[in-house]
Design brief:
Low-confidence stretches of chain A: 54-59, 137-159, 370-378, 564-569
Number of strands of chain A: 23
Distance between the termini of chain A: 41 Å
Structural class of chain A: alpha+beta
Strand order of the largest sheet of chain B: 6-7-8-3-9-10
Oligomer: heterodimer
Shape of chain B: globular
Low-confidence stretches of chain B: 1-15
CATH superfamily of one domain in chain B: P-loop containing nucleotide triphosphate hydrolases
Number of helices of chain B: 8
Radius of gyration of chain B: 17 Å
Shape of chain A: elongated
Distance between the termini of chain B: 29 Å
Largest sheet of chain A: 10 strands, mixed
Bound molecules: adenosine-5'-diphosphate, magnesium ion
CATH architecture of one domain in chain B: 3-Layer(aba) Sandwich
Strand content of chain B: 25-35%
Number of strands of chain B: 10
Helix content of chain B: 25-40%
Largest interface: A-B, 32 and 34 residues
Mean pLDDT of chain A: 79
Mean pLDDT of chain B: 88
Strand content of chain A: 15-25%
CATH topology of one domain in chain B: Rossmann fold
Number of helices of chain A: 29
Chain lengths: 879, 243
């Protein structure tokens, strides 16, 4: 008896593979577009991961992993806390690691360098001599910083330059060796540090990132004017069993010793702390992932169209194979394998493209996160095996899924003897596309979904799940209706009685559109709807931003610490500096801004001390809820009044008139929200209070920035040059420069969406091209007949071009209509729920027109090319 | 290598009265319109049977039911003692793959396979080992006279050559029955005659039964019997002397 035949293998090697090889251009195109989808998915995930990697607790890289830490309720901890803690904990075996942390940037090279262009470095101040004891835990024997040349804590006789330890990565990148001088800007002052050694990598732990610097604690305290102050104290327990329980006991002890009315510290576990950083950006990252999944989705739509077309073209071959004794199950299996192989090949190509893309995306995503959330530097995206496997699995699984219907279609092909009779009667897919009732149900369901609130996550993030679902409902609903438009269009043109044979031919096909027509139009509706909807969002955002920026940056000159490039860097301007700036004769009025991170219900937000009168007069706030009276601007009456940003209110679900409890040293203070203003610069939200109040509460005079209004006739550029010269550590900007920078940063944020839009359009038009060639292939005998009747090739191509163009018109009509709804949804639901920003709506008419013309032209061209190709097909005449 | 051609005497042929295919009262209608209205016939091993009748009389429909590509509505069809109506779709396909060879009016060669690969395909589907496959393909192509075009694609062959390759493909896996629906319908008379002669010789050499649908009188000459179909009923049976 013969062996069990490897039918699948025969079908693959003798048929599928040959077809792919014989049409290298269309196969390559299909793979490339799928690869783009996979690449979008993969690169965004890699970029996210790289950005998230920035949130690792840096201390963990140096010491053994810490178990927990304490911070001050607000501001810094006094060094004296260390002694109290030792007393409290007695002889419990635990190491206390005091940490002071600050950020720094390299000095600017050119005066005009953009904000965020220079990498931000993190400097950790650690008690290095004490660490020598601890090092053994992390490095095994010996090791640690103590083992590095130069030695920990060794004082260099000449105190002009403090010692700094740098990462191996930085040493390599900048060619630094022991003794090199590193120039940085810390707070508002330039500083020179002497490289004393390289931070070693403990076995089995990640290497220190290039952005990490370590200094001895007293050196950093001196450098940052924080003598006697600490940011946190970390607790490192000895390795061994029951570590978690031991930490829990210490935590309880620490909490018990805290006064409930005036807490001295906040205790948190390291694990929880690490999570907090991640949850804060989870919504943002999830949004990006969803966008990338959309890119993958359109790629799969194309795989579906491509395979469907291939089944149609290879139908007679399948029929013969069925005659020769290949079962329908085997046919289906072969096509599913083919779909999976397409997914695998496209996936592998996508991984390569995605990895390249990630290097670019990490800049954009990283900078956005940087600008919106943290001042942490983002390293280059590393190739991650697990992520690659995930992307590949998603690609193969989804592609196989997309191949499901085509495979069913192939399997249902009867043997050749009866295939000719059955003909192309079996119209693929989309029976459900025939029911306007189904479309209506989808539209209504979408409408209902828009009334649901977003899903709220820990850390204050919000995810507009229902709104996304509503968008999908509307897109699909509109796709169903587009088929109706198509037949209406066909009838309308016929009614016009235009004497043109190609037009008559094209309309004859559209009057009773088949599943293939409906599917192609639905794809166009989807792409046009999403693209145009996104364009409406971006343009509304742009309009709003321009207005906001023009209003907000109305003072003349802005000075910040040059180390301060984002909302949350720690660098500050010392009082002597800002006082001298404010006293400059050219200055009419100065608004000194103080600020710091506070936690309300464990969620991070910003508290800002400023001059409300200056804010009112020079920033012209856009009120979401304007203050009911002038009290909040009156220093005598505003002790318990604040202005809250819209994001703040959205985040904490508060309104004008509500009371917020602000944590300050020694307890909470209730304040009332007097007004809500729009702020597009900060997603975490902020509270504005009178600066005098801030100084009273926090006992600090360090300023984050100073905003200056000049005397009439004074030149901002001249003052800027003067201040830069007098304070080399200050970043001084004119309002014109800042407006440009702010716009640039926001436009950068939307760069990803533009790329996705482009992919969407390419895919939809390519899908249409596939559809047209399948349709024409099925009609090749009719085409031959028409040729025999005396129609010229040109006329047949024109008919196909018209058919493609009319399909595009139907897709555009429905797509643009749904894009209006999507634009509304994006602006008033998705964007509002995610970022808490209300935008002015703007309809980018010119942009939408260009989009429509582009789609129309490329669809017509695709139809024409398919028509030219089809008229050259040999007819297959039977009976 | 097994001999492809066996010389046999007419007495040997008479011995082979083994039944290959039996149809009993087969009915079939399309959309309520009866196409076959109770057709019965028998086909013996090595026998050549012509199925004639006017266009639309149901010849192709009957052939499709007998070959298991279509299902009869009523009656019974037994193929080597297996009732086709009792088999599921895969079972029918299995019968087709192993025991039936098919020749079409429009040749239906697979356009992406060379002539040799087309002939090899049924052998692959039946799990024949590569070495034996190569030998059989070579011998068959030589026998039908297109060995010189073994590496040509179907598009490069003439109609007569294509049908020779198709005959080689239909016989490659040594089926019990060869079903042919108007195999010369798409050929000129000279090529048609050559193909018919080839079919006659090969069925003699291999002992394969042949069921030949045709409306050409010339084609019936190579058959032992002729069944005439009219309006879905057998209108006449004629024994012929094919030799
Ligand atoms: N799949 C089908 N659907 C509908 N009618 C069919 C189908 N196949 C065959 N017929 C009809 O059955 C009748 C017999 O057809 P057929 O067997 O092809 O005739 P013949 O081969 O003798 O010319 C014809 O009238 C034909 O129209
Ligand atoms: Mg027929």
């Amino acid at each position: 008896m013969a062996a069990r035949p490897p039918v699948l293998r025969i079908l693959w090697t003798r048929f599928a593979w040959r077809h792919w090889r014989m049409a290298p251009v269309s196969s390559g195109l299909l793979l490339l577009i799928l690869a783009l989808g996979v690449a979008a998915f993969f690169s965004i995930r890699l970029a996210n991961q790289a950005a998230v990697a920035g949130f690792e607790n840096f201390t963990d890289l140096i010491t053994a992993e810490s178990d927990g830490l304490i911070t001050a309720p607000v501001g810094t901890l006094p060094t004296s806390v260390l002694l109290d803690l030792r007393q409290l904990l007695g002889n419990t075996p635990v190491n206390l690691v005091p940490v002071l942390e600050t950020s720094a940037v390299p000095p600017r090279r050119a005066d005009t360098e953009g904000i965020g262009a220079r990498p931000t470095l993190q400097i950790l101040g650690l008690d290095l001599p004490a660490l020598v004891n601890l090092a053994g835990q992390a490095y095994g024997s010996g090791g640690g910083l103590a083992g590095t040349p130069g030695g920990a804590g060794r004082r260099i006789g000449d105190q002009s330059a403090a010692d700094v330890y740098i990462s191996a990565a930085l040493a390599r990148r900048d060619g630094l060796t022991n003794g090199s001088i590193l120039s940085l800007v810390i707070n508002d002052r330039p500083a020179e540090l002497r490289v004393a050694g390289v931070i070693p990598t403990p076995p089995g732990r990640p290497a220190a990132p290039a952005s990490l610097l370590i200094m001895d604690l007293p050196d950093l305290q001196a450098l940052t004017d924080k003598t006697g102050q600490l940011d946190r104290i970390e607790f490192v327990l000895e390795a061994g069993p029951h570590r978690a329980e031991r930490w829990a006991r210490i935590k309880a002890q620490l909490e018990a010793a805290n006064s409930p009315t005036a807490p001295r510290w906040v205790v948190s576990s390291s694990a929880a702390r690490r999570d907090a950083g991640l949850t804060m950006t989870r919504a943002f990252r999830l949004n990006l992932t969803i966008l990338s999944l959309l890119a993958l989705l359109v790629g799969l739509y194309l795989v579906f169209q491509g395979l469907q077309g291939a089944v149609v073209r290879r139908r007679s071959e399948i029929a013969i194979l069925r005659s020769l004794g290949v079962t329908s199950g085997q046919i289906q299996g072969a096509w599913l394998v083919e779909a999976a192989v397409v997914g695998l090949a496209g996936g592998l190509l996508g991984l390569a493209l995605g990895w390249l893309g990630a290097q670019l995306a990490v800049q954009t995503v990283g900078r956005t996160m940087h600008a919106l959330y943290f001042g942490r530097a983002v390293e280059a995206a590393a190739f991650d095996f697990k992520e690659a496997l995930l992307a590949l699995t998603v690609a193969v699984a989804a592609s196989t899924l997309a191949g499901w219907r085509p495979a069913r279609l192939a399997a249902n092909t009867p043997p050749a003897q009866i295939a000719a009779r059955a003909g192309s009667a079996s119209d693929p897919g989309g029976r459900w596309l025939n029911h306007p009732g189904f479309g209506l149900a989808l539209l209504v369901a979408g409408g209902l979904l828009t009334t649901l609130p977003p899903v709220r996550m820990d850390g204050g993030g919000r995810l507009p799940v229902a709104a996304y679902a509503a968008a999908l409902c509307w897109i699909f609903g509109a796709g169903v209706f587009a088929g109706q438009i198509l037949s209406g269009l066909g009838r309308l043109i016929q009614w016009l009685k235009i004497e043109s044979v190609p037009l008559r031919l094209a309309c004859s096909h559209l009057r009773a559109p088949g599943g293939r027509h409906r599917l192609a139009v639905a794809g166009l509706v989807c792409a046009v709807g999403m693209t145009a909807g996104m364009a409406i969002l971006v343009s509304s955002f742009d309009l709003t931003m321009r207005g906001w920026i023009a209003r907000t940056f109305q003072a003349d000159v802005y000075a910040t610490s040059d180390g301060d490039q984002t909302a949350s860097t720690i660098n500050r301007i010392v009082p002597a500096t800002w006082q001298s700036i404010a006293a400059d004769p050219a200055v009419k009025q100065a608004n000194v801004i103080q600020g710091g991170e506070i936690f309300i219900n464990g969620v991070s937000t910003l508290l800002v001390g400023h001059d409300p009168r200056f804010y009112r007069d020079y920033s012209h706030p856009a009120w979401v809820s304007a203050p009911r009276d002038d009290a909040v601007f009156d220093a005598a009456r505003n002790a318990e009044l604040v202005l809250a940003s819209e994001s703040f209110c959205e985040r904490f679900r508060l309104h004008r008139g509500d009371v917020v409890r602000v944590p300050i040293p020694g307890g909470d203070r209730p304040v009332t929200i007097a007004g809500v203003y729009a702020d597009y610069g900060n997603e975490r939200g902020s509270l504005l209070i009178e600066r005098r109040q801030f100084t009273n509460w926090f006992g600090s005079q360090l300023a984050a920035s100073v905003i200056l209004a000049l005397q009439p006739g004074e030149d901002p550029e001249a003052l800027r040059a003067k201040l830069r010269l007098a304070h080399p550590g200050l970043g001084v900007y004119t309002s014109g420069f800042l407006r440009g920078e702010a716009l640039r940063i926001f436009r950068q944020t939307f760069a990803v969406t533009y790329a996705l839009e482009l992919i969407g359009i390419i895919v939809a038009v390519a899908g249409l091209a596939f559809t047209m060639s399948s349709l024409l292939w099925e009609r090749r005998n009719d085409l031959a007949t028409l040729r025999a009747l005396g129609l010229r090739r040109r006329e047949l191509s024109a008919a196909a071009a018209l058919e493609g163009g009319l399909l595009a018109v139907a897709g555009l009509v429905a797509g643009l209509l749904v894009s209006l709804a999507l634009g509304w949804l994006l602006i008033f639901r998705i964007n509002k729920q995610t970022f808490g920003w209300t935008l002015q709506t703007d309809l980018p008419g010119a942009q939408l027109l260009v989009l429509a013309l582009l789609v129309l032209a490329s669809a017509t061209l695709a139809g024409w090319l398919a028509g030219r190709w089809a008229t050259r097909l040999p007819a297959e005449r039977e009976e | 290598m097994e001999p492809l051609t066996k010389t046999e005497t007419s007495s040997q042929r008479a011995d082979r009265s083994e039944l290959v295919l039996t149809a009993l009262d087969v009915t079939k209608s399309y959309a309520g319109r009866p196409v076959l209205r109770g057709v019965s016939l028998e086909l013996h091993a090595g026998e050549r049977l012509a199925l004639t009748g006017p266009s639309g009389s149901g010849k192709s429909t009957l052939l499709n039911c007998l070959g298991g590509v279509d299902r009869a509505d009523g009656g019974s069809i037994r193929f080597k003692n297996r009732a086709l109506e009792a088999l599921d779709g895969d079972g029918l396909t299995e019968v087709r793959r192993r025991d039936i060879g098919t020749i079409f009016q429009f040749f239906h060669l697979l356009p992406t396979l060379t002539a040799a690969e087309n002939v090899e395909l049924p052998l692959q589907l039946n799990g024949v080992a590569p070495a034996e496959r190569a030998e059989r393909v070579h011998a068959l192509l030589k026998r039908v006279g297109v060995l010189g075009r073994a590496q040509a694609l179907p598009g490069e062959l003439s109609g007569g050559e294509m049908q020779r390759v198709a005959i080689a493909r239909a016989l490659a896996h040594r089926p019990a029955v060869l079903l042919a629906d108007e195999p010369t319908g798409n050929l000129d008379s000279r090529n048609g005659a050559i193909i018919l002669e080839l079919l006659r010789e090969l069925s003699d050499e291999t002992g394969t039964a042949l069921l030949l649908v045709t409306h050409s009188g010339a084609a019936t000459h190579i058959c032992h019997r002729e069944i005439h179909l009219r309006d879905g009923l057998i209108a006449g049976v004629r024994d012929k002397d094919a030799d």
